Amino acid sequence: MLRLLQIRLEWWTLILCFASIAVPAQSNTTNLTVALQLLQSMPECGRTCLLDAISISPCEATDIECSCHNDNITTQTEACVLDSCTIKESLTTKNTTYTLCGRPVRDGRGPGQRNVITGLTFSTLAYVIRIASKLSWQDGRVKSTLWWDDAMITFVMGLVFPISFSAVLLNREGLSTDVWTVPFDNITRILKIYYWDEDLYLSALPAVKISLLLTYLRIFGHDRKFRHLVYIVIALNVGYWISFVLISVFQCLPIECAWLRWSGEYPCRCNHINAQGWAAAALNVVLDIMTLSLPLPSLYRMQLNKRKKFWVILMFCVGFFVTVVSILRLQVLIQFGDSHNLTWDYTAVGYWSTIELHVSVVCACMPAIRNLLRRFIPTIMGQSTAKTGDRGASTGRSGRASTGGGKFGNSVTIRARGSDEIDIITLQDYTPGSRDTDQSHGEPEVRVDASGRVYAVE
Fold it and tell me: In the prediction, which pLDDT does 62 show?
């Protein structure tokens, strides 16, 4: 009984002290009311922890400035609150004490939204240019060289839009602010949006790599060994896609615990989110490196002029930048699963994830962007170059072929069928008796279609 009376007396002393120093004397009455309302909103467990910490500190009960800036009081109060209060009571207590002490309110929503909008704009523009480069008007009708890689990047864009829009929605709900300032219902909505956002993200990452791998097939598809390597990496990406989407969907049982468990009010069984995030991010980095490294030996064997070399280097620099972003995202995942301030700590994860996805789309579209630009400024973008070793072979524009005497005799220089795809790369040389580089197939037949394009068939 005496202890209870002591706590109540200290509480009223605390109220008067906060009110007396918070504002000038002329508005004392108004701010006394505000202080009373704030302290009355503080849970009983939080008030007890705060008063106990002050009572054993060197600060006087009337010296609020000392109490607010004393690290021991802060540490002891937080430890007591975490041990004595529920999660919701802990958040309410922290919000009240921060408000009474006049602590600054952090808000990082502005830059985050601008970055998302900028990234979405560039990735959408790159996609539109890519599709436009595959369309042309000939003989009074639209002709296209669209293929499966374009279908896959279209699927990716179907994921990029909801991911980007949800990032803006998350900011409006309170992401990028301290969790103790966010209404409880908003925290639940943030985690629910984040849950579905994560599933979309884990689908988009392998899909954009598969699109790039399919583009490789259009360029280097004449090489059977290279085709097999591409198929293997595609299979690995599909395996990653299926595995981690399923792991993410069933990260908690029941599933709704993924966005309800934060309060500690529901019985849940969940994966270790940190381990799950690290595994997904680390394997994604490995797949990035494998995907970007596949065409390097073929590119090394080709003779490219300076302009093409610049474009190839630029494209791969963007690709490796994506890998660097993936590694940076891996670093911020360290505190992802064990965060006590999820609406603030999740900001960096979401930020790097969105950048990674937007830049990946731009990278996958860069070859087609160059192809479209070449139509309008060919002198800047450069022309095709002969392949090293076939001295007699020469190159031509789309739909053209030229012959020459290489060391195998007469050969026909042919652009990949169905696309003027990457004029970064030299035209493929199909020689009688060798469709594949290992010459395992029979002699190909050279045909010319209605538009004058030359291609080889068995």
Answer: 64
Amino acid in the structure at residue 35 = A
- Dihedral angle, C-alpha 385, 391, 395, 399, nearest 10 °: -150
Does 390 belong to an annotated binding site? no
Asked if 317 and 198 sit in the same domain, the reply is yes
Tell which residue, 402, 410, 418, has the closest CA to residue 451: 418
Q: Which residues of 327-338 are buried (b: 16+ CB within 10 A; e: fewer)?
A: eebbebbebbbe
Q: Is residue 390 part of a domain?
A: no
Burial of 36 (0-12, 13-18, 19+ CB in 10 A): middle
Classify residue 105 as left (phi > 0), alpha (psi -120 to 50) or beta: beta
- The pLDDT, as a whole number, for residue 451 is 46
Got the DSSP string for 48-66? HHHHHHHHTSSS-TT-HHH
The count of structural domains within the chain is 3
Does the residue 391 lie in any domain?
A: no
Domain ranges, residue 161: 109-380
Backbone angles phi, psi at 14, to 5 degrees: -65, -40
> pLDDT tens for residues 373-427?
776 666 555 544 434 344 333 344 444 444 444 444 444 444 444 444 444 443 3
DSSP string computed for 199-245 = HHHHHHHHHHHHHHHHHHHHHHTT-HHHHHHHHHHHHHHHHHHHHHH
Which contacts (CB < 8 Å, 24+ apart) does range 56-64 have?
61/10, 61/13, 61/14, 61/17, 62/13, 62/17, 63/17, 64/14, 64/17, 64/18, 64/21, 64/100, 64/101
- Give the Cα separation of 151 and 153 in Å (integer): 6
Q: Is 33 exposed, middle or buried (0-12, 13-18, 19+ CB in 10 A)?
A: exposed
Residue 52 has pLDDT above 90, yes or no: no
| pTM given for the model | 0.74
